[in-house]
Specification:
alpha+beta, minor pseudopilin epsh fold, four-stranded antiparallel sheet, 2 helices, 32% helix, elongated
């Protein structure tokens, strides 16, 4: 006895295709939201890390450091400066000869940022080159401008706590 093979009808195939299309339509926006959220969180983490590490290095080495935004390359560059805070305080552990010779403890010389960040410099008055600089001092103090930026159509403002050098990032409505 030979069994007859059953084939799918056109109507059954159309139902399967419709179900697959419906599931895809429901799942795609959720996956897109997750990937956008990951891009935003990753970008914010990179900014916080660059600022926090630079502030810690300034305190640990007793050297004033500057973090300069190169918006074209989406990068923060770290450099030493001769500036000291108003009280000229330097931690005692950082006053040895090695640190006076200009050795910076291990840390990145630059921090690459996500290319999706749109910096909103506008009429900020940062100078002809539009360099945004944040200064970090050995006593933990910091200085620098508030700066707006956009990631994935979400607007944020970056500021630095003047006493601790902690990055303050706030989402704007």
């Amino acid at each position: 006895m030979r069994m007859q093979q059953r084939r799918f009808t056109f109507f059954e195939l159309m139902i399967v295709v419709a179900l697959v299309a419906l599931i895809t339509a429901l799942a795609t926006p959720r996956l897109t939201k997750v990937s956008k959220r990951m891009i935003v969180e990753s970008s914010l983490t990179d900014i916080r890390r660059a600022i926090s590490e630079t502030a810690m290095r300034a305190c640990a080495t007793g050297q004033s450091l500057t973090l300069t935004l190169d918006q074209d390359a989406s990068r923060f560059r770290v450099s030493r400066t001769a500036m000291l805070p108003a009280n000229n305080w330097v931690p005692s552990h950082a006053q040895n000869a090695e640190n006076k010779a200009g050795v910076i403890i291990a840390g990145a010389e630059s921090y690459d940022l996500n290319k999706n960040i749109e910096w909103q410099l506008g009429d900020s008055g940062f100078g002809a080159t539009d360099n945004v600089e944040y200064a970090f001092f050995p006593d933990g103090q910091a200085s620098g401008p508030a700066l707006r930026f956009i990631i994935q159509n979400r607007q944020f403002q970056l500021d630095i706590d003047r006493l601790t050098g902690t990055p303050l990032i706030q989402e704007l409505e």
